[in-house]
């Protein structure tokens, strides 16, 4: 079931190559994965605002997702929205467009595809203490 847009706008999905170009031209990367996923590795300079939380009952939508985005971003900001594989980010981008974020696009393939293409990521420093 595809998410519905109330504004009539359509989610634009770009591949990781186009996303990389957009990020170099001033777009900001909004990573909507869980904090745990984000901490294992993420696109450099990414902003992490989880769209879903993992609970004992399964994945649950973050009820404060838009509130957190609005506190960190302006509706005029140009955003590339990504997740692990490109599913949650479609839903998050839909919510952003419905909230009048006009310049939000979805990154198809997500972090998995970004890594597969050998693009720069930030990973946790290895623990050097014994």
Characterise the protein shown here.
The structure is a single chain. By secondary structure, the protein is of the alpha/beta class. The protein has one domain (13-122): Rhodanese-like domain (Oxidized Rhodanese, domain 1), CATH 3.40.250.10. It contains five helices and nine strands; from the N terminus they run βαβαββββαβαβαβ. The chain has a five-stranded parallel sheet. Pfam families: Rhodanese. It comes from Coffea arabica. GO terms for molecular function: catalytic activity. This is Protein HIGH ARSENIC CONTENT 1, mitochondrial-like isoform X2.
Key terms for this structure?
9 strands, five-stranded parallel beta sheet, alpha/beta, 130 residues, two-stranded antiparallel sheet, Oxidized Rhodanese, domain 1, 22% strand, 32% helix, 5 helices
Outline the fold blueprint.
Blueprint: E1 13-14, H1 16-24, E2 28-31, H2 35-40, E3 42-43, E4 47-48, E5 52-55, E6 58-61, H3 65-72, E7 79-82, H4 88-98, E8 104-107, H5 110-116, E9 121-122
Parallel strand pairs: 1-8, 2-4, 2-7, 7-8
Antiparallel strand pairs: 3-9, 5-6
